[in-house]
Structure formats: structure tokens, C-alpha cells
Amino acid sequence: MEPAQTLMRGLPRKAKAEDVFNFLKPISPVYVNFLKRHSGNCLVVFGTNEEAREAVKKRYNQMEGRYIELLVLSDISR
Questions:
Q1: What is the C-alpha to C-alpha distance for residues 57 and 11, in angstroms, rounded to an integer?
Q2: Architecture label for domain 4-75
Q3: Domain regions of the chain by residue span
Q4: Torsion angle of C-alpha atoms 1, 49, 45, 39, degrees rounded to 10
Q5: Which InterPro entries match (predicted)?
Q6: What is the mean pLDDT of residues 30-49?
Q7: pLDDT band at 3 (very low <50, low <70, confident <90, very high)
Q8: pTM summary value
Q9: Which of 55, 56, 63, 78 has a 20 to 30 A CA-CA distance from 9?
């Protein structure tokens, strides 16, 4: 299995990596990178495409009253 990327959008401006990890539990991302601080977007890398697809099921759940959008971007190996 290859790592896979997802994009999270709609994050609260004060969100930190710890908030992203907590939101995605029990799935554990390998890496979280905020694209621009306070933009509400971050890149999340999972160990497998299956984990990324499982994380996307949390789409439209809320974090601090904001609906979070998750999109699978691609397999990193491609």
C-alpha cells in the first residue's frame, strides 16, 4: 500500500495539527501540513489509500462549529 493525500478545508483559523489528529481519530495521519497558516486548509497524508478513504467519511462533521470538507487528492506514488 502507498501513502495517500487528502485536503481538509474549512478548518477554524486557530486549528493546529493536534486538532486535526483529534478530529480524524481513530485514524492516524502520517503527516499534517497547513498550506498557509490561518487559511483553513491543510494537507493530510495517510499511510494507505484505504485510511484516506476512511477519513473522508468524516466529511461535513464539525470542528468548533465549522463544517469540515475532506477530499482524497491522490496516491503519492503517482
A1: 16
A2: 2-Layer Sandwich (3.30)
A3: 4-75
A4: 160
A5: ESRP (IPR050666), Nucleotide-bd_a/b_plait_sf (IPR012677), RBD_domain_sf (IPR035979)
A6: 90
A7: confident
A8: 0.86
A9: 78
